[in-house]
């Protein structure tokens, strides 16, 4: 097949290819560096608009066409089983070509060379249950003919990824109606295709994975910033300073006070000055309102490689934080979330309606994000500074919608395809002050944010 013939097939099946591009654009932010393996004529790579794009293909004809017609990116005639590129990328894409490799495992082994700890492997392929329909479509000249050496379903691909030291982060399926009919196609593919059970019928299978071979910086060289939002928590400030452990190379404490009525601000300043010789302590008052605003203020002041949130109410003990540090420093996870719903709680730690709400949001978000998340509302959350900066740079996709800060981090981390890990913690009753959460007012707001996220993440 020539480059011109392939382009004609792309135009003939324009709806399918536009839908595939749209889904990959949701995963891959514009301006990322991208390596596409099996790039063909360079159509997909061009549509992704990378800041640095490289395509490789075994076909000399395809590479020649791509170089002439899509010169914004670089193209090489190369076998992915013997990758000779000496550069790394934000994303490595294998789209609709995994069935053509002679040795899929060898390809997976080779592409580790292009990975950093943050690189994501994106694989798209056609759902195995569509095979009879696709074979018929090829015979009727309704689909681009493909020479396949193998036909892998999800379990086969995941098994090969595991054998090659890749870890699956998530997978989903898209499109149950691959032909364009105004209104009907959009309704079926945007809404119906994303519903539980029906989603299993999707034509496009998309997997996201990361490499487990790329070395991280040693934990002893990582620094930590602990952000402590504090409103009406005067009685807890000294214990927070005394009990928060030192982690990694260096640990700084950052108190952000917001609109207190009990001298919390004065207490932070007094104790901050008192302990300044023994602890690295910073403090500031937030200009806005809400925990989310306080957290973002703290992050803007932070200098650590790892950013932690610790609620000042001490319902999560500061002594729990090394568990979170070890999980992220070892690479076990990239977004670390506390879970209060595993161990027995102290009496009065969480009211019954709050518990039911947490259970509901756990189920909703596990479906929504494609990763298990048992306790969305636990205040203790950890992310690397590098990933937070990426999250903040892409915050415009969701907008400034979250006064709590929890969902800004959860949705942003899911959009970046970070590996989620939950750490069970023991949730304690308050010993000072009263909760700042209104069950019904804030519960309604959380429902609205969940509906917003369904639209922005699932029904795209």
Number of strands: 14
Q: How many angstroms separate the termini?
A: 33 Å
Output the CATH class name of the largest domain: Alpha Beta
Cα shape: elongated
Count of DSSP helices? 16
Briefly note the structural class of the backbone. alpha/beta
Biggest sheet, spatial arrangement of strands: 3-2-1-4-5-7-6
Number of domains: 2
**If you average the pLDDT, what whole number results?**
89
| CATH 2nd-level architecture of the largest domain | Alpha-Beta Complex
Q: How would a textbook summarize the main sheet? A: 7 strands, mixed
Query: Mind telling me the CATH superfamily name of the largest domain?
Result: Spore Coat Polysaccharide Biosynthesis Protein SpsA, Chain A
Enter the CATH topology name of the largest domain: Spore Coat Polysaccharide Biosynthesis Protein SpsA, Chain A
**Uncertain runs:** none
Kindly provide the radius of gyration, computed on alpha-carbon positions and rounded to a whole number of angstroms: 25 Å
Strand content: 15-25%
> Which percent range fits the helix content?
25-40%
Task: Spell out the helices and strands N to C.
Answer: HHEHEHEEHEHHEHEEHEHEHEHEHEHHEH
Provide a short characterization of the protein structure.
This protein is α/β, with parallel strands linked by helices and 460 residues long.
